[in-house]
Write a structure and sequence with these properties.
Blueprint lengths: L2 H16 L7 H16 L4 H22 L3 E7 L5 E6 L5 H26 L3 H18 L3 H20 L2 H18 L2 H11 L9 H9 L3 H23 L2
Antiparallel strand pairs: 1-2
Length: 242
């Protein structure tokens, strides 16, 4: 490891513990928010940037499955940005319900957690935690495109953490946080639109799986996902905007 790189690593590790760090300007916060919103709202950018949300979605399934005592057999993220997480365990009960519900909840909740870390001055901790979660997801990934997506995303964060400036770290941290907050809303809207047009029924979506497991209509699960995503966006924005 290069000496300068090693010094940067230990500096960031110390920042994680101390939670030290100055708050960025309001202009940076709002600019990154607008950039993230554009990446989510754009019909040209979203088919590409959605991959990051899918990584968070499938990572949420895998993490909650492990916490619920299930065995994760593998995660796949496709070029189409569709994803699949396969786990083994009881076919019914709280564990499988929580695992199925975790997907759409993961991106906004991760964004909310990142916002909390940024608001309390833990920028380095937020970025390093992102790398740890991506590394864990890489171990579970079972297809080439999914592995490439994790590696590219993780490499982009790693380059900024170990070689970038303080400004670069702030831009990346806030951009990623805003993207998860905004990006947690659009997939729920797409799911609802797909079911309203009749394309979602019978396609084994998370909402349909939850309806089969709990007897609660899929539409109510989609409403829950949407409310959670909007609540995370509102609270996260309150914490982030100076």
């Amino acid at each position: 490891m290069h000496a300068a790189t090693g010094d940067k690593f230990w500096h960031d590790a110390a920042a994680v513990v101390a939670g030290a760090g100055h708050q960025p300007s309001g202009a940076l916060v709002l600019t990154t928010a607008l950039a993230a919103l554009a990446a989510v709202a754009s019909s040209r950018l979203w088919p590409v940037t959605r991959t990051v949300v899918t990584l968070a979605h499938e990572g949420g399934h895998a993490l909650v499955a492990l916490l619920a005592g299930r065995r994760v057999n593998g995660v796949r993220v496709m070029r189409s940005t569709a994803g699949l997480t396969v786990s083994e365990g009881n076919a019914a009960g709280p564990g499988v319900v929580l695992t199925a519900a975790a997907g759409y909840l993961a991106p906004p909740l991760l964004g909310l957690g990142a916002a909390a870390l940024l608001a309390t001055g833990h920028l380095a901790g937020m970025l390093l935690l992102s790398l740890i979660l991506l590394a864990a997801l890489a171990v579970a990934m079972r297809n080439a495109f999914g592995i490439a997506a994790v590696v590219v995303t993780g490499a982009a964060i790693a380059v900024v953490v170990w070689r970038g400036s303080a400004l670069g770290e702030n831009v990346l941290g806030y951009l990623l946080t805003w993207f998860l907050l905004f990006g947690g809303v659009r997939p729920v809207l797409e799911l609802q639109r797909s079911r309203r047009r009749g394309r979602g029924r019978g396609r084994d979506t998370d909402a349909d799986q939850l309806a089969a497991l709990t007897g609660v209509p899929a539409g109510l699960w989609i409403l829950l996902f949407g409310l959670a995503a909007l609540a995370a966006l509102v609270v996260g924005a309150f914490w982030l905007v100076p």
